[in-house]
What does this fold into?
Amino acid sequence: MQIEIRRWMTTVENRLAGPGEAPLRKVAAIAIVANPYAGKFVEDLSPIIAASAVVGEVLAKLAVEAMGGLPVESYGKGGVVGLAGEQEHANAMLTTTFAEPLRVAVGGAQAWIPSFTKLAAPGALIDVPLAHKDALYVRSHYDGVSVTLPPDSPAPDEVALIVVLANRGRIGARVGGLKASEIGGKDGLR
It folds into this structure.
């Protein structure tokens, strides 16, 4: 099986930080894909899981390019299923098979990739969570990217798959916990 990518797009947000701090860049790479399971129940979703690797590669490349050479510190993924599908279709397309190319594209990553999926009409808004790529417990990097899909997407027989990246934690983060500077080693901790 192959997943048909019907269109793709990227968004980039840059936000100035305080004096001496790096600006915050958040990007989203979005692919609107055909949903081969729209309108029917299919028990075995393994074919679409396997096919999702190609879409993961495309979105990882687009997202890293949109970072403009800035280092990636956090990531996330999300999906919006058109109304003729099931939420489970997006979840199947966002498994480790889809995500592994993202881990490679950001130079390796140790932490679980946060995600959110939903069933929605065209033009939906989705908040895709962000977390540090090497240690989930870095509180300064708990954030998100709000993505508003085009007014005609996803169509009932489509799924919007989304990858988000950021180069740093939230501006003004100060709630304590593990710091990004304390991360290192195989298990994400020093």
The two ends are 42 Å apart (CA to CA). The CA atoms of residues 83 and 156 lie 5 Å apart.
